[in-house]
Amino acid sequence: MFRSKNKIQKLSVYAFLLVLSLSSLPANAQCSMCRAALTSEGNTKKAEETLAQKLEDNGCPKVTVFDLARDDMSQALSDAFRYSKLVLATTTYNASIYPFMNDFITRLVEHNFQNRTVGLIENGTWAPLAAKVMKEMLSKCKKINWLNTTVK
Question: Per the confidence metrics, is the pTM higher than 0.85?
Answer without folding.
Answer: no
